[in-house]
Write a structure and sequence with these properties.
mainly alpha; Arc Repressor Mutant, subunit A; two-stranded antiparallel sheet; 3 helices
Length: 70
């Protein structure tokens, strides 16, 4: 993980993504993240965008699960 200052919600989302990737070997979908975090898909999108803006993750173009933690 990086030392990027994240909000509480972003840190929670990053942890959920990391655990999911370790368990299954690929990134979770927005729907799966919403289900696991108890947040709406809109909230998950905002957290994901925040992670990208802060440099803690990147989007992978052309992929349904196109999100990678840095």
């Amino acid at each position: 993980m990086t030392d990027v200052p994240l909000t509480k919600g972003q840190a929670e989302m990053r942890l959920i993504i990391a655990r999911f990737q370790r368990k299954y070997g690929y990134a979770p979908s927005i729907r799966e993240l919403a289900s696991k975090s108890g947040k709406s898909k809109t909230q998950v999108h905002r957290y994901m965008d925040g992670l990208v803006r802060r440099g803690a993750a990147e989007k992978v173009a052309g992929s349904a699960r196109g999100f990678r933690l840095l």
